[in-house]
Every structure is written in C-alpha cells, then in structure tokens.
Amino acid sequence: MTAPDAVEPRAVRGVAAALTALALAGALTGCGAAGAGDDDTMDVWMYQDSLNVVQQAAVERFNAEHAPEAEAVMVEIPGDGYEDKLRTAMGADDQPDVFFNWGGGGIRPYVEADLLLPLDDLLAGDPEFRDSFLPAVLEAGRIDGVQYGIPLRGTQPVLLFYNREVFDRIGAEPPETWDDLLDLVDRFREEGVIPFALAGATPWTEQMWLQYLVDRYGGPEVFARIQSGDHEGWRDPAVLRAAESVRDLVDRGAFGDSFGSVSYTEGAASALLAEGRAAMHLMGAWEYSTQLADAPAFAEDDLGYVAFPTVPDGTGDPANLVGNPTNFFSVTADSPHVDQALEFLRVTTGDEYVADMVANGEVPTTADAADLFAEAPDPEYAEFQYDLVQRAPSFTLSWDQALPPSVAAPMHTEIQKLFNGQSTPQQFVDAMAALR
C-alpha cells in the first residue's frame, strides 16, 4: 500500500467499529483448526484457491526445517469473504500473524492504523533477499515509500484467454484490434457460442474490462489521477468511452444472456471456456493454473492466450498491462511471533518455493525466474507472460485493490449496474465521480 497519529488513534477505532459487526468465529475453513492470535501457532491466512498448494508446501517445509517455537498453520479463507473477514479480524483481537493481500489501497487502512509491521529493516538487513525480486513488483508492496508486503505469488496481468478448438471450428484468429473483437462477437453468436465467458455475479471480473478500456483509450494517467484522490478524474473522456464500449458489448450479446448469475469463485466462467460453450475469457494470469487444476487436458491442448487488443484512436500504449503485479504477505505489528514471521517471509525466494510456483503454472516475480521456465507445464506460456511484464511501460494495479475500500465496494456496485443495464454510461461516470 504513514504512520498513525500517536495521540489520537482514531483510525484504529474506525477499523474496529466498522468491522467487528461481522462475526468471524466458525467462518474459517482451512488446513488447521487454530484461530488467529493463538500464541501456540503462527497463523498464515490465505485466500482460498487452487494456487495454495505452493504456500501449504512452504508451511510444511518451514515447520520441518526450522523447528519453530510456534507451529506455522495455513488458514484458508473462502475468496468471496476474504476481505470482509480480514477487516473484521484486524479490528478485533484475533489478527493473523501473516496474511495474504493485494497491496495498494486494500492495506492502507491497516498501515494508517499502525496495524502492520514495516519491512524495510528486513530488506535492508538482507540485500540478497531484497534483490531477488523484480524491483517494480517489490514497489507495489510499499505504502508511502515504506515496505509492508513481500511478494508471495507470480505476476498476474489480465490476459485474453481463448479456446483454440472453438476458434479452429470457425477458422478464426484471436483479436488484435477492437474491430477484430466485435467481428468475433458476431461470428460466435451466429454459431451459438458465447463470445466471452463472464462471471457477472462477481463484479471484479467485469471491472477488468473497464480497466483495460480506460487504459487503452486514455493511458495509465487517467486512473493515476483517480487513485491520487482527484474524483473528477472519473469524468475523463476515456472513462465514458470505456463505459460506452462495455454497453455496446453487452447489447451485442458478447457475454451471453445470463452472465449476471455466473460466479467466478464457483468456477462456472472457467468451465464455460474449457467446455467450449464460451470462446474467450478475460481473466488474470492465474486462469492458466485454474484450468490446469480443473481441466488439465484443455489447459495442455486447447487453452490459448493473447494480450488485450488495441482500440481505435486510443492514446494508451498497447503494451500496457492491468491486473495485479503480484500478491503479498504482510505481518501484523502485534504478532507474538514477529521474528518467526520474518523468517517465514524468506521462504518466498527459496529454490523449492519458486520451483513449486513454476510447476503450478505461475510466473514468479523473482529476478531469475526465466531460468526455470523449461520446467513449467507450458514453457511458452511462462515466457509469454514474463515477456509481457518485462516490456510493459505501465502495469496498473486492479482498481479495487488500488483504491480504498470505502470507494472500491460502491464502485463494484456501479460497475454491475452498468453491465446489467441499470445505468447508462453517463450515469456510471456521474456515480463514480460522486464517490468519496
């Protein structure tokens, strides 16, 4: 993602007041029964998904190799409720010791409430560890120049995935331009295939379309202005053009007729692509690992991937990326196991950890990752993604992670209203400019 006011800790009380209304007890599922804040365990909270095998193996190695004073336990939190449960715990007395996050605006409230441990001393005291990461990725774990996050997963740009078999069936090529994309929408509709899988019940999947379109039309400066707190940045012409393009796609049937009831966390959108009922899917790079776990034959034989297409009269560089530079581990300031937690963070650059990531289809954010791509399930995919990240002039963090929760949550509502036809593009712009 500054030091809090030591005299008036209003931020701490604000976090607690806003979050303790949610009950955490009984809501966690995971690899251990220990609760956060237990002095007998060091609890590592993870967003529950198919990539967690890497972190679980790391926890097991850490316990076996370090004989820690407190057993490290990975606690998996279902994706749909992760951020709510984390906010509840951070505002109470059952905080995790180490926890998964996206950096950016999502952790800023915890930094301002003095709930996170600065990690600058860790990096300064271990230059080899610090220099193991790509600098731009490490930067994304800073808030106001202070390091609060250590990269724990691969780089995660949003890519356009497609089903090669479905494309071959109609003799089509993946889109390079917006006109190509619109032509494919019409062609696949005629064939009875949903052009784009979209989990509209999970609004951050819809957000991806707007992120790329705003960047392609107006460049990264448009969202940078918004992220800096200038609410009028939402009135930039690029935002309206992006919203109009979204409505055009919906009206053309690009996402089918029932995308609003499709959930990402239940795997429905990914299944549409794998089963050939949808031709394409705009999703984060983790989609490859998801397909490798759930539909391995499809992932190995028919899963294609390209960059987001260019748009007419756009001023943004077509090489720009949006998504998540990576995910991060942060340490809570009041953890009774701070020294052990800091030692645990070092596993993220270990040879076994990085090799596990590559084997799981991820592209690590370590500087020497390319040396391992020959061991990846699809070396071509790993090289493609790594090259995109290396060449990108700009890599914009996902809006809902870059902005504070007070804006991100209502933004999701407005995005869903736009996609569902409950607001016009101009109404969307007006509503976003009014958010504070």
From TrEMBL:
Instruction: Extract the InterPro entries matched here.
Output: Bact_solute-bd_prot1, SBP
Q: Which Pfam family, just one, is annotated for this protein?
A: SBP_bac_1
Looking at the record's lineage, which domain of life comes first? Bacteria
List UniProt keywords, sorted A-Z: Signal
Concerning SUPFAM superfamilies, the annotation shows: Periplasmic binding protein-like II (SSF53850)
Q: Which residues form the signal peptide?
A: 1-36
Q: What protein is this chain from?
A: Extracellular solute-binding protein
Origin species: Marinactinospora rubrisoli
